[in-house]
Specification:
Elements lengths: L6 H23 L10 H11 L1 H22 L3 H21 L4 H5 L12 H18 L4 H17 L1 H4 L9 H4 L12 H21 L5 H31 L2 H8 L2 H18 L1 H4 L2 H8 L1 H13 L7 H5 L5 H21 L4 H19 L1
Helix pairs in contact: 1-3, 1-13, 1-15, 1-16, 1-18, 3-4, 3-6, 3-10, 4-6, 6-10, 7-10, 11-12, 11-13, 16-18
């Protein structure tokens, strides 16, 4: 993205990863007695924490799909698709690796804990699905755009049908992608819906970003649609229920967190894109480009990946509010510092993963 680089994307990614870090830190370490739903500060923090994951999934779908369809323009589409599949597999692998209890395994203690599906596995699988769909649409951007919008709407609108899904006959390794019964934090549905909407938005940028009035049009569109989703989407589903007498629409209206969160995401996009020239700072952009390293480092420190000894095990749920706030600031600074100066870049990981797979192929052929 050398030309028409969408700097606001890196800024949104930076915002999302920092919100994720502070959210995990405070949620893991704050004393439960201070989790007062009636307190304005805690209620505000909890609300903004709730839009972090939707923002992360949507922006991931946007940037990945934008790069994918841009690759068709310069003739590197097949290479980009292979790279996309590799990236998806790598994210899935890292997601599992972060939960491997090495010391428990050394002492012969095995459990299904490491099979829990989290954000990395869902994003990784979503990227692979996008590549497959793009290939099935014969790399036609218009068809891809319509299909991704349709998929997003269908996934969100049918959420009550799989909200309490149970798959006792399917192995845990696979059912964890569809149900939370075995401890999964995220599942591919409904979270792929956000990635699909991000992919749809990427097609708008691809087609119209060079037009002079596009920026104000898309900023205004993001804001208006976002407000409508937050305040009117539940009302719309109730109208559909009254008109069509389909109880699914009523169930969506009564627990309409997916569309309202999407509305929050679109408003964030409008703010960040409008202020792009002011937030185009090297530090912000660098944080946005190091999200994977930052995520891995923060997960190890908080949850004790590999060793089983992290902040959660040492001082979990013991901090006073002021301690949690100061601790979160220090934690964010430390994780970013380690990511900038000691962690390898994402490109380094991708390239070496590719080299390893190529070596395996040579030995097996």
């Amino acid at each position: 993205m050398k030309s028409n680089r969408l700097y606001f994307i890196d800024a949104v990614r930076a915002f999302a990863i920092l919100m994720m870090l502070q959210g995990h830190f405070i949620d893991t370490l704050l004393d439960p007695s201070y989790r007062d739903q009636n307190h304005l500060a805690f209620k505000t923090w909890e609300y903004f924490r709730g839009i972090t994951a939707p923002t992360f999934f949507t922006i991931s779908g946007l940037i990945f799909s934008y790069l994918l369809i841009r690759a068709k323009q310069n003739g590197s589409i097949n290479q980009r698709m292979r790279k996309g599949v590799m990236r998806g597999l790598m994210l899935i692998g890292i997601g599992y690796l972060l939960r491997v209890p090495i010391f428990e395994w050394l002492f012969g203690k095995f459990s299904n804990y490491f099979l829990i599906v989290d954000v990395l596995q869902c994003i990784g699988l979503s990227l692979i699905i996008i590549v497959i769909i793009y290939k099935l649409t014969f790399k036609k951007t218009l068809i891809f755009s319509i299909l991704m919008l349709t998929l997003g709407l269908v996934v969100f609108s049918t959420e009550p049908l799989y909200r309490y899904l149970e798959l006792p006959q399917i192995p845990v390794a696979f059912s964890n992608y569809l149900t939370k019964n075995h401890g999964s934090v995220f599942t591919i549905i409904p979270w792929f819906g956000y990635v699909a909407f991000g992919a749809f938005i990427s097609t708008l940028f691809y087609h119209y970003v060079e037009r002079p009035k596009f920026k104000m049009a898309i900023v205004t569109g993001f804001f208006i649609v976002g407000i409508a989703l937050i305040f009117k989407s539940s009302h719309l589903f109730m109208k559909l229920y009254y008109w069509l007498d389909i109880s699914l629409f009523k169930d969506v209206a009564y627990y309409n967190y997916l569309f309202t969160r999407l509305g929050n995401v679109l408003i964030l996009f409008s703010i960040f894109y409008l202020a792009e020239n002011y937030i185009k700072q090297p530090l912000i952009l660098r944080i946005g480009q190091k999200t994977l390293s930052i995520y891995v480092i923060h997960f190890i420190i908080i949850y004790g990946s590999f060793t089983g000894l992290g902040l959660h095990q040492i001082i979990g749920n013991t901090l006073l509010p002021w301690q949690a706030i100061i601790g979160a600031i220090i934690f964010l600074s430390l994780v970013c510092f380690l990511s900038f100066h000691y962690a390898k870049t994402n490109a380094f990981v991708y390239s070496n993963t590719r080299k390893l797979i190529d070596k395996i192929k040579r030995y097996t052929n």
